[in-house]
Design goal:
With about 260 residues, the protein is an alpha/beta fold. The protein has a single domain, classed as Rossmann fold, CATH 3.40.50. Helices cover about 35% and strands about 20% of the residues. Strands 1, 2, 3, 4, 5, 6, 7, 8 and 9 form a nine-stranded mixed sheet that branches. Helix 1 crosses helix 10 and helix 4 packs parallel to helix 5. The chain is globular and about 55 Å long. About 45% of the residues are buried. The structure holds adenosine-5'-diphosphate. The site of adenosine-5'-diphosphate has 18 residues, from helix 1, strand 7, strand 9 and helix 8. In the N-terminal section; belongs to the MIP18 family. In the C-terminal section; belongs to the Mrp/NBP35 ATP-binding proteins family. This is Iron-sulfur cluster carrier protein. One of its GO terms (molecular function) is ATP binding. Homodimer.
């Protein structure tokens, strides 16, 4: 259509949303969704009106991470009204269908579902929308990266070699569709013992920083492997909200400032 398309002619801007950022990972289980939510909260703490779109169709985690399960209501013109929690505007395929249903969807269905969640949702005015992408770098991810008007992508990796190789694939994928990589976050960077507060580099801490330097993309920060992060996300209370020390608020705000 006129006006909203990017120069490439395929990406429609979403009215009211200033910037869309993807959070991606080369593979599952590295803490992408947890990081996407906490990063969104970090952006909120910078005073930005922030939304989170859970496009991780294979395993939508926003319902679990936020404790929200309600079905979104519709506006008069049949747009879905996103849910609100922790000052964030939230939409997830998990609000609409059972997890098992979404898991068996195929590429084109995933794309049209994500497209609907972008275009048929009354997002309101947002400074930034964080999109939690499905893990991996296959066709579905590539085509999503192509169809969502992304300003940039943040890659989440653990310090392990394999995860880093996958992270590299992610950066290559975004490059292919002209989406700049805003940087790499190292999650599960080191282990923080809840009893003695000693730090151990279980997966060989620092791998992502080296990889980022090698690839010439920014290194955004490291997040420890901490039981408080796991417990918080399973209870629907992100660590940023539940940690009394404010340590995590600082860590994620620092990352948010860099992107
Ligand atoms: P992904 O989206 O990459 O599949 P998730 O965000 O769902 O990963 O995280 C996978 C599991 O690891 C979840 O149980 C989550 O609570 C846990 N987790 C993620 N990051 C951390 C961390 N830094 N410390 C402890 N547990 C974590």
């Amino acid at each position: 259509g006129a006006g909203g398309d990017s120069p490439m002619g395929r990406q429609k801007a979403i009215p009211g949303i200033k910037t869309i950022i993807a959070v991606a990972s080369g593979k599952g289980g590295v803490g992408k969704s947890t990081t996407a939510l906490n990063l969104a909260l970090g952006l909120r703490d910078l005073g930005l009106k922030t939304g989170l779109l859970d496009a991780d169709i294979y395993g939508p985690s926003v319902p679990r991470l936020t404790g929200l399960k309600e079905m979104p209501k519709l506006t008069d013109d049949k747009k879905m009204i996103p849910l609100q929690r922790f000052g964030l505007t939230l939409m997830s395929i998990g609000f609409l269908v059972a997890e098992e249903t979404a898991m068996i969807w195929r590429g084109p269905m995933i794309q049209s579902a994500v497209k609907q969640m972008l275009q048929d949702v009354a997002w309101g005015e947002l400074d930034v929308l964080v999109v939690d992408m499905p893990p991996g770098t296959g066709d579905v991810q590539l085509s999503l990266a192509q169809h969502v008007p992304l300003a940039g992508a943040v890659i989440v990796s653990t310090p392990q070699d394999l995860a880093l190789i996958d992270a590299r694939r992610g950066i290559t994928m975004f490059k292919k569709v002209d989406v700049p990589t805003l940087g790499i976050i190292e999650n599960m960077s080191y282990f923080l013992c809840p009893h003695c507060n000693t730090r151990s580099d279980i997966f060989g801490h620092g791998g992502a920083r080296h990889e980022a330097e090698r690839l010439g993309v920014p290194f955004l920060g490291e997040i420890p492997l901490d039981i408080a992060i796991r417990e918080g996300s399973d209870e629907g209370r992100p660590v940023l909200e539940s940690d009394p020390s404010g340590k995590y608020a600082e860590i994620y705000r620092a990352i948010a400032e860099k992107i």
